[in-house]
Amino acid sequence: MTKLTICEGGDGTESSLGDVLIFPDMIRYRELTHLDVDNFVEEVLVKDTEWLPGSPEAIKGSFVFVCCHGSRDKRCGVCGPALITRFKEEIEGQGLDGQVAVSACSHVGGHKYAGNVIIFSPDAKGEVTGHWYGYVAPDDVPVLLRQHIGQGEIVGHLWRGQLGLSEEQQKKALELRHATNGLTEEESSAKESPEANGTNGAACNPAPAGGCCQGNGGGLTCCQSDVPEAKQDKNIPAEQNHKSSTTESDKENGAASKKGRMKICRTPTWFETWDRSDTYTTLAVVASAATVFAAFRCYKAMN
């Protein structure tokens, strides 16, 4: 099965607008226009033949795609940009420019698992495979860069599957990974837990009522690892504040052991989440209202 996804062009590599990247083949066709698309899909992706107007060139490195499609599901529109920012910060900070490319992409499915991340990178054997991660929070980014991209190892507590495999093949791949590591399923789950990877439950696994990005009275929240500091009441003694903080901390720790720690992110304003479809809908409503009003005026004038 071939899946087409649209992604932004400024990924930090030599790719430009109109380029087509094909994974896991790791090849690129340069600078297609909208007039080329139908013919390209038919010749290259359907018939698996050469596309005469251009020739493929090999690409190398690791490619990260983050779903930021806010109009399909606003959870991806909230979590995606935060992940893009963190990836770019970590890539620059770790000197991985030119080795790891990150791009926002269109809807890839599974929006309830936001943040959704797809990584194409060489595994421990040097073979390029695509892996899908869900419930990814910004604090999980260093782990993905270090363990998946740097070491070619799966980050188990975030892993949703390998692209191109059937459900049965996914199960066998998971069993093989456990067997290769010499671990039972319980031991593997413990090793790949958020605590073992130093993320303090940032991945929300198991997902608490919908995962990292959840609806909350019309708003949205995004899962993060740190817990907000307890507020101090200046009107009561410091000792009492300390006792209250300790009690609240105990409650939070108990809840965190079951759900993972979460931090509420700023809910985007209506302007930030506004897209073209909203504009068309608004114009349609206004036009309909104007038509009804004009018809009513004509009716009143005739009577």
Automatic annotation (TrEMBL):
Composition skew (Basic and acidic residues), residue ranges: 233-242
CDD domains assigned to the protein according to its UniProt record, in alphabetical order: TRX_Fd_Sucrase
Domain of life: Eukaryota
Pfam families: Suc_Fer-like (PF06999)
Residue span of region Disordered: 233-260
PANTHER family on file: ACTIN PATCHES DISTAL PROTEIN 1
Name used for this protein in its record: Altered inheritance of mitochondria protein 32
